[in-house]
């Protein structure tokens, strides 16, 4: 196995990565993600996970369509992330890994409350630590959760998994065939070029905390592993813009 570039990673996986169009959960997709996490753990990479909820419920968007207020709609989104965390916990455990779920919303029967010091000590012991429940507050996203948790646990990088897009482009690559991918970007570039990578709160927080974010396509074979090795086709976002 080739060398890994990062020692402690925060992997952000959106809910979409766990399901297929008509299926909330797709066994094959989940298995591929979990097998790759196992490879990382077996190679002494520390893995924390932030999971989204979009396969179940997209807070504001779906909430307003059925006339819900924003706050309840967002709490429902956070609850969705807890369901996804439990799915990943079960799957990772069947692969023989040690896992803990920590939730920002209190659901003490199924997850520990979020406590960053314990998260760090479990990471050091080789546990996969899954952060569920988003930030615990409405009006945020799981991208912002990823930035917050990465800062708290002092992750070396956020591996921001995208579904079917291998980085940040100058225009939507799914619409424009001649779209060009950036190899690296600064947070300033994202603002200046008005690039749609993550929401503004997540971007600002990542810049403030001086985080590196690697945007890559989770659907390509072994790409989580390659991302952790610094070998995936990707875009790296950081305060110090790299060459290229
Ligand atoms: N959410 C929230 N606060 C948070 C994180 C998430 O209110 O700190 C809600 C929000 O409604 C969001 C939903 O949970 O739409 C699901 O999260 P997200 O859209 O980030 O999931 P993903 O698109 O990554 O699957």
Set down the secondary structure blueprint:
Blueprint: E1 8-13, H1 27-42, E2 46-51, H2 59-65, H3 70-94, E3 99-103, E4 112-113, H4 116-124, E5 128-132, H5 142-152, E6 157-162, E7 184-185, H6 187-192, H7 200-208, E8 213-217, H8 223-228, E9 234-237
Parallel strand pairs: 1-2, 1-6, 2-5, 3-4, 3-5, 6-8, 7-9
Antiparallel strand pairs: 8-9
The structure holds uridine-5'-diphosphate.
Strands of the widest sheet, in order across it, are 4-3-5-2-1-6-8-9-7
Distance between the termini: 27 Å
Low-confidence stretches: none
Which ligands does the model contain, each kind named once? uridine-5'-diphosphate
Number of contiguous helices? 8
What characterizes the major β-sheet?
A: 9 strands, mixed
Radius of gyration: 17 Å
- What is the number of beta strands? 9
Mean pLDDT over all positions: 95
Helical fraction equals 25-40%
**Structural class by sheet pairing and helices:** alpha/beta
Shape type: globular
Description of the structure:
The protein is an alpha/beta fold and 244 residues long. 36% of the residues lie in helices and 17% in strands. The chain contains eight helices and nine strands. It has a nine-stranded mixed sheet, with helices on both faces. α2 crosses α3 and α5 packs parallel to α7. The longest helix is centred in the middle third of the chain and has 25 residues, at 70-94. The chain is globular, with a radius of gyration of 17 Å. 45% of the residues are buried. Bound molecules: uridine-5'-diphosphate (UDP). Uridine-5'-diphosphate (UDP) binds at residues 14-16, 52-54, 58-60, 74, 77-78, 80, 134-135, 137-138, 140-143, 145.
